[in-house]
User: What shape does this take?
Amino acid sequence: MMKAKRYIGVFLSVVTTCFIVLSDANTLNVSATESTATTIDEAYPEIEQIESSETSDTSSHSCSIDSFDLSLQTQGFSLFSETAEANEPDNTDPNGAYVVSNENVFQGNLGQTNEMRWYAFILDQDSKVTIELQSVSDVDADLYLFALDQESYQLSLIGGSATEGNGIHEQYKGILNSGIYYFAVSAYAGSGQYAFAFYSTDDTQNEINDAVDNASSIGLNETISGKIDSPYDIDYYVFSVDSSAIISIPMDTLDYEANIASLDSTSHAYHISNVDPIYEFTPGTYCIYIFSSTGKYSSSDTYTITTNKIANVADNSKAFYFMVNDAANIVFQCDSTGGNMYVNSHPIDVSYSFKGSASDSTGRREYDISMTNDSVIKAKIFQDQFTDDAEKSVYLGMDMPDTVEYMWGTKGTGVTGNLLDLSIYSTLPVRFYHIHCICTGAYKDYKFWQDLNFATVFIDPNTGKLVDIYHINYLYDIAASSDNMKFFRPYSKNTKYYYPYYNGKEPEQW
Assistant: This one.
């Protein structure tokens, strides 16, 4: 009978050095209106890329176990104690197997080639079982796992690990049903000492997920939990991103290490904050892996990982300044000057037009209000941008990007809900906002004729198009009419700026 072969084992020290740990975002040492970085690649660190499970290029081998009697004695059947006593038989036969339990560490000796040392364990419930075997350089020790048929008392080979070479680490990890199991440490060649560690826990929900190739799936906007149940445990989770997006990945990792990696060369992700667990992902497949770098583990302590997709973003490497509001699911992005503007991946379009007239016996009113979507328009993304006079900024209604919950506007487009609140401007002589209102008779005091280079507008995050004009809005603020709008700012406290905005001094981190 040929023995089962499966090489899983990679020492933890190898695994933790195979991947580059995700570093903190670089602080951008720039002025409020000029960035030294022009693309996201220059501004933020990219996460590491890996292609497959990290395994050694080692070959397995086979040997025969036909010479061993795999039938247990049915008379007086019992499992022996965890340590050999003088009156107990040698455990070179399954009938003399020593019982092991969770967290047991055993040492033994293989006296000659083909010798087997037997152990057994009992599972009261479905469990994850881990066996880590290490031998000295004088012996090629292998690991066999058997299930006991409790009616026939026959042992059936169900798994193991057999890697060619003396002193090679062998490892078995698997989910096993309740029952009685045996495993044998066998000398394929040579003789010498060995040691193994045995772990069994009820952590079966997402296991076995100890390599990229058998990683558990986690969806976007999902929370998943797990346990590091042995010093050798590494848990992998994979998720896919269909379109470029800003995703927050908060993790309660206890004292464990956690990293994120891309699984193909065409996908990229950037950690855009050295404070928050927030990233820009391009389309592709990614993994999160969590492990213990200190040897700490627990069969009861649970870590959690959440993938919170906030919104899609545009594939524009120059637009790497982000305003993010996770509660409103709105992401505004632009370049370092406030140009190349997008909201939730949609280009900003501030085109607007309203024409109307009214007359009665006391006078006449004619309205021609429009806004052109000029390419030179920029967003006010710094507090000293457009004007460095704070009072003037307030007077002109110019502020940094934010969100509003828009209830209605009698001259709006009809869209309601969470909108982007955006102050925009152009450098003179370009004037993109035209308010031409002629009023006569009793309405002559409402005459207004201005061509402006600034405005604050509300933008639909689902289209990028203008919904309403907040300031200056002639129809709401100046005209003799009942027109009005209503909105709230319930999520302003959630607005965060992931770029070096100016607030009296340059921030050191964001």
About this structure: The first helix runs from residue 12 to 18.
